[in-house]
TrEMBL record:
Source organism, top-level taxon: Eukaryota
Organism: Sapayoa aenigma
Gene that encodes the chain: Hyi
GO molecular function: hydroxypyruvate isomerase activity
Domain Xylose isomerase-like TIM barrel: 10-199
A biological process from GO: glyoxylate metabolic process
Keywords, comma-separated and alphabetical: Isomerase
SUPFAM superfamilies, alphabetized: Xylose isomerase-like (SSF51658)
Protein name: HYI isomerase
């Protein structure tokens, strides 16, 4: 969308369907060029001056229609579309899609197997908590995981609410084999900030890069 005009995605924004399709086509071109099989289809914000409850129905209808269009286009490219709930308590008060429950209900209505849930645990913790049960409940829908400590949105080993070694072990036990995206703001130097990952590997008897010493 038009970020200078305050847009953050268009998929659920009524009246912006044509622009959504143009943006999606461009995203597919980029994804094809870099060999990326997943595209985050951003819902967008409640229009300025509009009451969220008053426009919720129209925005959901728009979202579902656009997601079906996106799924069919992405299927031709063997790609997956992702929808991500973003918290409206801290990060973006006007973002339309806020909770995994809302996202799961919409994905069920859309009914396309190549649309998945992008679960950012930072947003999920702020909106709902209950991370273990939410991961177990929505695991079949998850296509990508993102992490950041709460509430500072820094490295996983920075002070905060979340126990990431436990969460990583839970993901492994559930059979998650996808990427875990580090969508956090480093407190300092990016590479220095990755010390948490080296420590995590060492604590589990792994070499740099995640390979086991036994395998070596």
């Amino acid at each position: 969308g038009d970020q200078e005009a305050g847009e953050l995605g268009l998929a659920a924004v009524p009246g912006r369907q044509a622009a959504f399709r143009q943006g999606l086509a461009a995203a597919v071109q980029y994804a094809r060029a870099v060999g990326c099989p997943r595209i985050h289809v951003m819902a967008g914000r409640v229009p300025l001056g509009a009451d969220r409850a008053a426009v919720a129905g129209e925005m959901e209808t728009t979202f579902i229609e656009n997601l079906r269009y996106a799924a069919d286009l992405l299927a031709q490219e063997d790609m997956i579309g992702l929808v991500e709930p973003i918290n409206n308590r801290i990060t973006d008060p006007r973002y339309y899609l806020n909770t995994p429950h809302q996202a799961a209900a919409i994905l069920e209505k859309v009914g396309r197997p190549n649309l998945k849930l992008q679960l950012d645990l930072f947003h999920c913790q702020i909106m709902d908590g209950n991370l273990s049960r939410n991961l177990e409940t929505y695991f079949p829908l998850i296509g990508h995981i993102q992490i950041a400590q709460v509430p500072g949105r820094h490295e996983p080993d920075s002070p905060g609410e979340l126990n990431f070694p436990y969460i990583f072990e839970l993901l492994e036990s559930l059979g998650y084999t996808g990427y875990v995206g580090c969508e956090y703001a480093p407190k300092g130097d990016t590479l220095e900030g990755l010390g948490w990952l080296r420590s995590y590997w060492e604590n589990r008897g792994l070499q740099h890069g995640g390979t086991s010493k036994a395998a070596e």
